[in-house]
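Category: protein sequence paired with discrete backbone structure
Discipline: computational structural biology
Format: plain text, a pair of labelled lines
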Amino acid sequence: MRKIRYVVAGLLGLILAGGGLRMLTFEAHSRPASQIKVVHTPERLARGAYLTRSVLACGACHGSKEMGSTAKVDHLALTGGECWTRDYGFPGTLCATNLSADPETGLGSWTDGEVDRALREGVSRDGRALMGVMPYDAYRHLSDEDAHAVVAHLRTLPAVKHAMPAPDIDFPVSFFIKLGPEPLAGPVVGPDPTDPVARGRYLATVAGCQGCHTPVDGRHQPLPGRDFAGGQVFEGPFGAATSSNLTPHAKGLRADTAESFVALFRNRATAASEPNAKQTTPMPWSSYGSMTREDLNSLYEFFSGLKALDSTTPEP
């Protein structure tokens, strides 16, 4: 019996050692970056600038100076700036990177394919998995044309040398983020431009609305059947904020018409642009509020057509 115990203990030790080695050496699921060279056309550059500034809200992280310092951000100089740290309950330190054309601290030495892969598949140039704070799980639904438009626009940003701290993520989160990236299965086509609901669904998806406006469990997993019902709590320098219910319930969508929905975004964006405006919510109003009226109307059509879900979301 003693020999059997020794054998079992030895096998368990080998299994644990093998598992530990696997965790240390595991790499994110990825594929080689494509060899695409994005052609810059006036239409593509304009579309990329619009998506970057408004729908994807890149400036909310890559254009701000300090987490929670102000609601007003620079959407044009995406040189990095916002950092998540242990001071705010984050499992380590993570800073938004410099997206300018600087070859040392920005994207200047990256290929178009590497930028596209990071944007939509969550893998950095060196094969490192990006943390989900970078919403590549939403951006992966960008159509090929829209993704290429973003890449084209980023290539026009002037080079600014601005080094950001390297990621320092605590274990075991540093392992679990490697499980997130997934190569695209094939070409991605955009919605029918003549269908406002399909257009709104696409915009809500790539803007990441569901990720914030869906309640989660104790493991931060979305609750099944509760999409867009709100109730997710965010804590930061601004205090605690709870996401709103976006479904057409009496406690939900805070707009009776498309016009009032558009006005809500415009007014919040204007307030956020004031010189002394302070960030009171993680919602990037200054970005989403600059979306076109047509896009905001499409979002309203999509949200108002959802199944009405009750909500326990408190008033802001």
In short: The two ends are 64 Å apart (CA to CA). Confidence is low (pLDDT under 50) at residues 13-26, 66-72. The first helix runs from residue 2 to 25.
